[in-house]
Amino acid sequence: MDRELRVVLSARVFSDQKCFGPGVSQLLKRVDELHSLRAAALSMSMAYSKAWTVVRNAEDGLGFHLLTSTAGGKHGGGAVLTDEARQMLTAYDEYCEKLRAYGEKLFEETFAFYDDIPKQEVHKKEERYAR
Length: 131
Known about the structure:
By secondary structure, the protein is mainly alpha-helical. The protein contains five helices and four strands; from the N terminus they run ββαααββαα.
């Protein structure tokens, strides 16, 4: 019976509060792609008000603005990432990639014994949830 273990890592950046992580990163990338916080939120099945809360909380924790936005109206509004937001995204992506690579290497070294342990079905599927 083959079972392959793997490690899944994610990083969150804190100041006095959580201020940057996978959710903020994804939201900012969508804003950059769609030029709109509303469109970015919609593409993530997120309420627009929730998206604003995510951005504001991140900005409060980081101490700088992530978006420059223009109000809607006849010509429509939009949102653009600040230079600082782009720097955060670049640094965060680089950090996550290094963390992933190191984490995989460390996991393989630390859990090398696992492949040598004989595996068997411990519980039949119907027994797993029986009480």
